[in-house]
Design goal:
The longest helix has 25 residues. A hairpin with a 6-residue loop joins strand 25 and strand 26. 34% of the residues lie in helices and 10% in strands. The chain is an alpha+beta fold. It binds thymidine-5'-triphosphate and magnesium ion. The protein binds a DNA duplex through helix 2, strand 3, helix 6, helix 12 and strand 9. It catalyses: DNA(n) + a 2'-deoxyribonucleoside 5'-triphosphate = DNA(n+1) + diphosphate.
Length: 1100
DNA sequence: GGGTTGTACTGCG
DNA sequence: TTCCACGCAGTACAACCC
């Protein structure tokens, strides 16, 4: 359909060119129906032969996968519109009348709250990126020029726009439109620098101006105008003058209006290099809005415009308040309705958004890294790429000193279908080795895949400092360090560091890494950590980060390439343990040991699990904070760890066996290092019920030196550091004193010592060889002789025992504690396949669990998957591997030879089997890893080389650009890290040469751009006297409880308004044909297949 | 009925 | 000959838990 608003101008503003009205004439030509984001109206499009542009775009697209995907999406939109039309047609008169009345009341309330007292100015730089390049190379001003590359254009100068070249247009199409087009690669460092200059000017008019991205800002110029006796018109002219004169000739366009939303709309009217002032009167506003195309309103995009037009015939803001307004209220959500009504009234936010404390808040909700490349099918190659992405993400997170809990893998198939798969981790993490395993798990569950893009994203963020400032951290002598005070870089990318074993994910490690905190006594040790450099250099100052702190490191000290790094992870971890591991260990206790198993928060039904209020438990030791309903640690989202720590002032470990509803028979197993696991069914005390119901797993057992440690019941809990005794004084002021911790080194020694003692029967292997990250990840358990292990599927690390779960009854049956030497194990049958996960379990096999109960012993290194994956001598595996052919579960009555599978306590996922592991695959070589058949066919050299070439830096193309790209380029030797090289070698038509940096992207890392309506539209500042009930979206918390624009969903439609329709169905498992619900069930299902295939492989 | 998790979709620059 | 980015924010909804 024609772009109704393509050439809209307010009635008062004389059109600069004779732009025709939208022609609703029929479209005999197919190209006229192909809507793209860049066929929308945009400044500089006047006089463009839109018909021709449309035709060329269509011709260049019509046979592509991208086009087909666009068609698919368009069909979904059409279907959505059709549903809305049907619903609309079904509305009865009474219904409509009632809705109309309430809407009118609401409109009246909104009108009553209208605030015309402020003067808002929105400034937007003209073709910003292009202008920056033009300022540097004036000859470009007269040539058609685009910023970006053949794959994608970020923006174009006005000469190029005359040809129809636009933002978000693929370069090859632009080239077709304008063969003379000059491409200039992105250079985010330049844009950032230019933006700083511009902001300095903005600050002159409004010290509190709000950035809307690199190139735009909102200024409340009310005070400025009053102080200088200026009219809005003069203020806008003054701002533009100052920008032009002090920013190297860069120009901007401005809009002035009584609220932010209108100001933004106005800034586009006289673009480029112009301004438009909307008078602050209700009449002027209403007149302006009356004919304003809906598409001009921020947050109404291509789809919403179509929906409004198609379903209700609404094309202008004025029509939003017209006869259709009652239907509007009945078809759309509450939030959407409010948003539409405000648009119709010309309302918007009139006050500054509150500032947040960036030192405490992460300053963002999520952080991500993604890449597009040529079609990639080989799983090994994909996993190698995942590793690079994770490394890059970890580096970025380190530089911002943030950690997160919600990890998302994004996949775009070659048909442009996008999939996201996410997990909520048991704790906050930020190190690459903590993130990769879950990412790989998500990735593997989707195979087979033919990809064109992969991305990783972390959300649920918090500042690392939050954890580091804990009482324990202080107790351990941690002290804050300035960004520059960190030891010299010993390695490169933060996330690349070997981290797994000493619990890298903990606060201490990261703190040392990013220079925020470091153990007072171990800075030297920290200096030796390969991961310390990048973050340290860049920590703190944004400018540092922009300078590419995490990329610019000495090649010699860089992390090894992915392949070798993966292979040597365990050993490196060991080294850390030996050297600087002390600090990690100590901190790990503070943080890592807080990992709360899913059962704690997602606990089962009856027994209540961990959310039971400990305060209700009689006998709660004094001095230990009781977690009542008003302070539900499990409810406090991101801070449960800290809350506990805050109140306990010491590390603790807890395992809540009350897990899922189906796990009633599981018991609490609370362990402290070196202490033999006491299986619930063997220990003193009652059954599972009491623990689960009482909640004393937490509260009743918390150590407290006022009352003394609570008597262990079936669960044991103890501060790991208590064993060593002696040391610093406890912290005061937390309601209790703490057992003085020993020096860190003693703690570590005590820990490993105690474990070693407990495992004395088993050979004491070289710790350096103990922890091993299996290259392929799945084989799962990384064990150390000191009892620490890491789940490779989730991020759990620590010394909790791993529990073995019976395949038949699904109950925990034992631990991975060292057990008596098992009898030699004859390998018997081969597991059958066929059966589904739950039944397939009986795939027989020679699995014996010699000891079906109690502590098990594993001596055969091969028994540990980790051991198998470890190149070196195998550690005394903590994994129980028994060798009998039959065993009996003591929870249920199962007796047989089903293999036992290992399940991680923390993530509750199957991680491997007790069957002898398959031969260790080679290190993560893209071509060879896993699924050789797939690898063989899809494999290009790219991935392979990527794996092998991680020669120097953990960098990546786009970010190399946005942070250090310019610098590197200037130096004549562009940094080429693993991701960057992989990208360069595989980028599908996006990069010319391997040396070329990414041509498109976004300047991540800077302050996130506010893209929602929150803050744009009128906020909760007004008394929202609504006649309607349940305006939850408005009142609930969010002071800016603005409807975020995208919220425009249909209300109550049974079908996914979000076009989620059709997706609800089960997925068919390619392995067994089972229909499995997507989501966690699917993951679990694929876990089983992996585990079983592992068992089979081993048996064979 | 409330909260949490996971997913798709929309929009912005 | 090929060939359509990246990073961020937000809403809605289903499924599940308490
Ligand atoms: C729209 C868009 C912009 N950008 C970048 C490049 C732009 O120069 C910068 C600012 O975006 P815009 O302000 O939307 O565009 P512009 O400044 O280039 O042109 P105009 O004169 O119309 O304001 O953001 C992208 O990278 N991708 C996009 O899709
Ligand atoms: Mg601009």
């Amino acid at each position: 359909m024609a772009q109704a608003g393509a050439s809209w101008r307010p009635a008062e503003a004389p059109p600069p060119s004779p732009s025709g009205a939208p022609d609703p004439s029929p479209n005999p030509a197919p190209w006229q129906d192909y809507q793209t984001v860049f066929t929308n109206a945009k400044a500089g499009m006047e006089g463009v032969d839109k018909e021709k542009v449309q035709r060329i775009v269509y011709e260049m697209s019509k046979d592509s996968a991208h086009f087909r995907n666009e068609q698919r999406k368009q069909a979904a939109t059409a279907a959505r519109i059709e549903r809305l039309r049907e619903r609309s047609a079904g509305l009865g008169p009474a219904e409509l009348a009632a809705a109309g009345r309430s809407i009118d009341e609401r409109v009246a309330a909104l009108e009553a709250g209208r605030d015309l007292s402020r003067l808002w100015l929105h400034a937007d730089m003209d073709c910003f990126y292009a202008a920056v390049h033009e300022a540097e190379r004036p000859e470009l001003k007269t040539q058609p020029m685009a910023v970006g590359g053949i794959g994608m254009i970020s923006t174009a100068n006005y000469v190029a726009r005359k040809y129809g070249v636009r933002s978000a247009m693929p370069g090859f199409i632009a080239k077709k439109l304008c063969p003379q087009l000059v491409f200039v690669p992105l250079d985010f460092a330049k844009y950032t620098a230019a933006a700083e200059g511009v902001r300095a000017v903005f600050r002159q008019l409004d010290p509190d101006f709000e950035s809307g991205g690199l190139d735009e800002a909102y200024l409340d110029v009310t005070d400025f105008c009053a102080a200088h006796g200026m009219t809005p018109e003069e203020a806008a002219a003054e701002l533009r003058r100052r920008v032009r004169e002090s920013c190297g000739g860069l120009t901007c366009s401005c809009g002035v209006a009584p609220n932010k939303t209108l100001a933004k709309i106005c800034s586009d009217i006289n673009k480029p290099d112009g301004h438009y002032v909307l008078p602050s009167s209700r009449e002027a506003v209403m007149r302006f809005v009356d004919t304003l195309p809906t598409r001009k309103v921020p947050c109404i995009g291509k789809v919403t415009e179509q929906v409004l037009k198609g379903a209700l015939g609404i094309a202008t803001c004025g029509q939003l308040l017209g006869p259709q307004r009652a239907r509007l209220g009945l078809l759309f959500s509450e939030a959407a309705l409010g948003f539409f009504l405000e648009a119709g009234l010309g309302l918007g936010a009139t006050r500054h958004a509150p500032k947040t404390d960036r030192a405490v808040e992460p300053g963002r909700k999520g952080i991500s890294c993604e890449r597009t490349f040529r079609a990639m099918r080989a799983p090994g190659e994909q996993e190698a790429l995942a590793g690079q992405l994770v490394e890059s993400l970890a580096a970025d997170m380190a530089s911002e000193e943030i950690e997160g809990r919600n990890l998302t893998l994004k996949l775009k198939l070659t048909n442009f279908e996008v999939r996201t798969r996410s997990v909520t981790l048991p704790r906050h993490v930020r190190a690459a080795p903590d993130m990769l395993p879950p990412v790989l798990r998500l990735l593997r569950a989707e195979q087979p895949l033919e990809l064109r893009l992969m991305g990783v994203r972390m959300a649920g963020l918090r500042k690392v400092h939050a954890a580091s400032r804990s009482p324990l951290a202080r107790l351990l002598g941690l002290r804050p360090q300035g960004p520059g005070s960190a030891p010299p870089a010993a390695g490169a990318g933060t996330g690349a560091g070997p981290t797994t074993t000493p619990d890298p994910g903990d606060s201490a490690t990261g703190a040392a890494v990013n220079g925020g905190f470091a153990p007072a006594s171990s800075s030297a040790a920290a200096a030796g950590r390969a991961i310390s450099a990048g973050g340290a250099g860049g920590g703190g100052r944004p400018s540092s980060r922009v300078a590419g702190a995490h990329r610019t490191t000495e090649p010699g000290s860089s992390p090894p390439p992915l392949a070798s790094r993966t292979a040597s992870r365990g050993a490196q971890g060991r080294n850390e343990d030996k050297t600087s591991g002390h600090s990690s260990r100590a901190l790990r206790l503070a943080d890592g040991s807080f990992a709360v198993p899913p059962g704690l928060t997602a606990g089962g039904a009856a027994g209540g699990g961990s959310k039971a209020e400990p305060s209700s438990v009689p006998g709660t030791p004094r001095g230990v904070h009781a977690y009542g309903a008003d302070e539900p640690f499990a409810h406090d989202e991101d801070n449960e760890d800290d809350d506990l720590e805050e109140h306990l002032g010491m590390p603790y470990e807890v395992y809540d066996g009350g897990g899922g509803a189906s796990d009633d028979d599981e018991d609490c197993v609370m362990l402290e290092d070196g202490e033999p696991l006491l299986p619930p069914w063997e220990g003193p005390g009652g059954g599972a019920a009491d623990t689960a119901a009482s909640g004393d797993a937490l509260c009743g057992l918390l150590p407290c030196d006022e009352t003394g440690p609570a008597p262990p019941k079936r669960a044991r809990l103890g501060p790991a550091c208590a064993a060593a005794g002696g040391g610093a004084p406890g912290t005061a002021g937390h309601g209790h004193s703490l057992p003085p911790p020993p020096p860190l080194c003693q703690q570590a020694a005590a820990q490993s010592g105690s474990v070693a003692a407990a495992a004395s029967e088993t050979p004491a292997p070289d710790p350096a060889a103990a922890a091993g990250g299996p290259p392929n990840g799945f084989a799962a358990v990384a064990c150390a002789s000191n009892g620490h292990w890491a789940c490779l599927l989730c991020t759990f690390k620590g010394n909790r025992r791993q529990m073995l779960r019976c395949l038949a009854c699904d109950s925990l049956r034992g631990s991975t504690l060292p057990a008596p030497p098992p009898p030699p194990l004859p390998s018997t049958g081969e597991p059958t396949v066929g059966s589904g996960p739950n039944e397939g379990a009986d795939a027989g096999g020679s699995r014996p669990a010699a000891a079906s109960r109690g502590p098990h012993r594993g001596q055969d290194p091969r028994n540990s998957a980790a051991a198998a994956a470890t190149a070196g001598p195998s550690p005394a595996s903590a994994t129980t591997v028994t060798t009998a052919t039959t065993w009996t579960c003591r929870i249920c009555t199962y007796s047989g030879n089903r293999r036992q599978l290992l399940r991680c306590e923390a993530c509750d996922n199957l991680r491997g089997s007790t069957a002898p592991p398959p031969p260790a695959p080679p290190p993560l070589q893209p071509q060879q890893q896993q699924r050789p058949q797939a690898a063989a066919e899809g494999g290009t050299r790219g991935g392979s080389s990527a794996g092998a070439m991680g020669s120097s830096r953990a960098t990546k193309a786009p970010k190399a650009q946005r942070s250090g790209g310019a610098k590197a380029a200037a130096a004549g030797a562009p940094a080429a890290g693993p991701l960057e090289r992989l990208w360069a070698s595989r980028s599908g038509g996006q990069t010319g040469t391997a040396a070329a940096p990414a041509e498109t992207g976004a300047p991540a890392g800077a302050v996130p751009v506010r893209t929602s309506l929150a803050g744009w539209h009128s906020g909760g500042s007004r008394p929202a006297a609504r006649g309607l009930e349940g305006h939850t979206a408005r009142t609930a918390g969010a002071r800016t409880g603005e409807p975020a624009a995208a919220a425009l969903r249909v209300k109550g439609a049974g079908e996914g308004l979000v076009s989620s329709g059709g997706a609800g169905g089960d997925r068919r498992c390619p392995e067994c044909g089972a229909q499995v619900a997507p989501g966690p069930a699917w993951l679990e299902h694929t876990d089983w297949h992996l585990a079983l295939s592992l068992s089979r492989g081993a048996a064979a």
